[in-house]
Specification:
The complex is a heterodimer of chains A (306) and B (411). Chain A is built from eight helices and 15 strands. Chain A is of the alpha/beta class and 306 residues long. Chain B is 28% helix and 25% strand. The longest helix of chain B is centred in the first third of the chain and has 17 residues. Classes of the chains: A alpha/beta (306), B alpha/beta (411). Chains A and B meet through β4, α5, α6, β9 and β10 of A and α1, α2, α5, α6 and β11 of B.
């Protein structure tokens, strides 16, 4: 089974400071990190690789438990192994095809390679970075296009995991757009993975008023909520592995991307104006002592005839 | 070719662009700036350049197409178990405004299972010029695997200029699926929508960077232009909270509304993929999204025990309790009480904010509130400027006084 995790490099803070003199946004001094939602997606992928999830859900573990066990590099305990055997008896046909490999795919500037190495040090098998001036300035459609070009140049993915959204863009569109481009089903806002088989996945997703347990056939795209998992720390051996791993860096030509559909040129939307919101102060000031203020507000509420 | 263009004649090599760039995408060498592999075309250097030497050039749009062939505004009307969600009526209200400016029609698009109630469709017909209705078992459960190709195909055939979707969990899954199939733009979570009456260009304003920045986005060369809007951001049309019921209406009116409906088919090859095995409803307690009155607590209430005052005030006003994100993070209240960009967008008639400073993420979630009363010791808190009424006071003392007065009047 091949799992691809899509990851984005984002600034470590979303704070926006304005330069008081030039009235422009101060962007310097911000370190890039992997989007926190994507780290949750990566952790889920690594848990699948660790065999935390079984096909019929009977061995599915609490999210925190799974993460903890994974953190220490522990293998599932013996009773779970027993349970896994039981699963093998009942549902031998639908277990994740071994071995599970995890690739991390990103589109970004060359420096993003360091973040992919970090993902490898935490347990991912491969990193692919799409980096090219032709990809710059992409909106969600052009980003989706680049990522699907990248996916086409990797072993076929059985499961694609994305963060639910990026903290710097908050559009939450890339996952469903990739699913649409590939013509595969999508489950968004995954709070918990319950079971992962070779052909189906069961997951808990956020819904209008609560959550829903859903079954979806593979291949599929899942977008993951932050609370789904906490990314493990790298082991010492992992850090060494990450340091000497080869991250494949591919340009637009390498993945056969049509320049007219990538980057700024391939983006239907354009930002025509951005501004730090400032509201006109039109508030009516309610003056007086606290008691007088309360009386005025009480009158106001009474007048509203709620 | 598109990209960052630097005018060598103007560049003075001041390095302000270098400092403004977060991705080492521009460097100054030999008193002249040039873009590097790190450039993501974010435009920071364009803003920072004091001599106007930098600009971003966009290649001419490859598929300009015939934009004039696209007309009308569509609203995707989401249903749950046959009931049309309120956000559809909020979007129809906004669509009416835009259509009036542009001089075009408004269409609601509704999919539902076979034999579902027709009341929702009738209510939509009362708010729109036309309802495209598909009744098909495969549309009974909301599965984007069926809905997205269906809407995309409809749009390709009927060519609407604009499609609006509610930014509900399903709408956020559906709209991107349609966008990628139509290869058009999609702007998520818009808080302001305006239209150019001449060109039909939709100006879509949304918060970015966690709400610290507002961005206005256009989709100039692709149609349809598509946007999602969170529930509660716009006021519902004519307060259409409850649906019309066919049996309560004069037959002639029903006939008139039925005449606005147009049946649509779903491609027989499409099959639902996502099977809902179990629905788990969140804990009891009314949703703050629908509450007519909200008392919202911020960090300014000081202590968790003061929540009792907040609850009492909400009770006296017949409303619900909301809060800001820090209170949820401190564990004082559950997430479902959180108002704002990452919580719930609300649209009460009255919102009393106690000790809420009004971070932009929070303000993004209260845009639908009719009357906001802000109580804060800090007169310069952003919400004090954004509110209709600003009370500069200790919010706990004020809450006690207000409760006492309301109790006295009630009793």
């Amino acid at each position: 089974m091949h799992i691809v995790v899509c990851a984005k490099a984002v600034p470590s803070t979303t704070e926006v400071r304005m330069d008081p003199v030039t009235h422009t946004i101060v962007r310097d001094g911000r370190q890039a990190v992997i989007n926190p939602f994507d780290t949750a997606a990566l952790e889920l992928a690594l848990q699948v690789k660790d065999g935390v999830f079984e096909a019929d859900g009977r061995c599915a573990r609490g999210v925190a438990g799974g993460a903890d066990a994974a953190c220490g590099g522990l293998r599932p305990s013996s009773d779970e192994a027993a349970c896994a055997d039981a699963t093998a008896d009942t549902a031998p046909a639908d277990r994740p095809a071994a071995p599970v490999t995890v690739s991390v795919l990103s589109m970004g500037i060359p420096a993003t390679e360091a973040l992919l190495r970090d993902a490898i040090s935490r347990g991912a098998d491969e990193g692919v970075l799409l980096s090219d001036r032709a990809f710059a300035g992409a909106d969600t459609l052009a980003t989706t296009y680049a990522l699907t070009c990248g996916l086409a140049h990797m072993p076929t993915a059985d499961l694609i995991l994305c963060g639910k959204m990026a903290v710097d863009g908050d559009t939450a569109q890339i996952g469903p757009e990739i699913a649409g481009a590939l013509g595969v089903p999508c489950v968004t806002d995954v709070r918990e993975l319950v079971a992962v088989g070779a052909r189906r996945v069961r997951a808990v997703r956020g819904a209008d008023n609560g959550t829903e347990v859903v079954d979806v056939p593979l291949p599929a795209v899942l977008t993951v909520a932050k609370e789904a998992a906490d990314l493990r720390m790298p082991s010492i051996a992992g850090v060494r592995r990450g340091a000497c791993a080869r991250v494949r860096v591919l340009g637009a030509e390498d993945v056969g991307a049509d320049p007219a559909r990538a980057g700024l040129a391939g983006s239907p939307t354009q930002v025509v104006r951005s501004f730090v919101p400032q509201r006109a102060d039109e508030a009516v000031r309610v003056e007086g002592t606290v008691s007088e203020q309360a009386a005025q507000v009480a009158d106001l509420i009474e007048g509203m005839a709620l | 070719m598109s990209g960052l263009v630097i005018d060598a004649a103007r560049c003075v090599g001041c390095r302000r662009c270098e400092k403004a760039c977060a991705t080492a995408g521009i460097v100054v060498e030999g008193r002249l700036a040039h873009a590097t592999e790190g450039c993501v075309l974010c435009g920071a250097c364009v803003d920072a350049c004091p001599v106007g030497a930098i600009h971003i050039e966009r290649g001419s749009a490859a598929d300009e197409g015939d934009l004039a062939a696209w007309s009308g505004i569509w609203v995707f009307a989401e249903q749950d178990a046959g009931q049309v969600l309120p956000v559809a009526f909020e979007l129809l209200g906004k669509a009416r405004e835009l259509a009036a400016a542009r001089g075009c029609t408004v269409t609601a698009v509704l999919g539902q299972g076979c034999g579902g109630p027709v009341d929702g469709a009738l209510t939509l017909a009362a708010c729109a010029d036309r309802v495209i209705l598909a009744q098909d078992e495969r549309l009974a459960e909301r599965d984007a695997s069926v809905y997205a190709p269906w809407i995309a195909q409809l749009a390709e055939e009927m060519r609407p200029e604009i499609i609006l979707y509610g930014a509900t969990p399903f709408g956020r899954e559906l709209a991107p699926g349609v966008a990628v199939r139509l290869r058009t733009g999609l702007t998520a979570d818009c808080t302001v929508l305006e239209i150019d009456p001449e060109t039909g260009l939709l100006q879509q304003t949304r918060p970015a960077f966690g709400g610290n920045l507002m961005a206005t986005i256009e989709c100039p060369a692709h149609r349809p232009q598509m946007a999602t809007v969170r529930p509660g951001v716009f006021a519902a049309m004519a307060r259409t909270r409850s649906q019309l019921r066919a049996e309560d209406m004069p037959r002639q009116l029903v006939r008139g509304l039925l005449a606005r409906m147009e049946a649509a088919k779903v491609d027989p090859r499409l099959e639902p993929q996502v099977a809902v095995v179990e629905k788990r409803r969140a804990d009891e307690g009314a949703s703050i999204a629908e509450a007519p009155v909200l008392v919202v607590a911020g960090r300014g209430i000081g202590s968790k025990k003061n929540l009792a005052l907040v609850r009492r005030l909400a009770e006296l006003l017949g409303g619900e309790v909301g809060c800001t994100r820090p209170l949820v993070e401190m564990g004082w209240l559950e997430y479902r009480h959180q108002v704002g960009q990452t919580g719930v967008s609300v649209a009460p008639k009255l919102l009393v904010a106690l000790g809420v400073s009004g971070a932009i993420q929070h303000l993004a979630g209260i845009g639908g509130a009719q009357t906001v009363v802000a109580v804060n010791e800090d007169a310069d808190a952003p919400l004090m400027g954004a509110a209709a009424y600003a009370v500069q006071a200790d919010c706990v003392a004020f809450a006690r006084e207000l409760i006492a007065r309301l109790e006295a009047r009630a009793g």
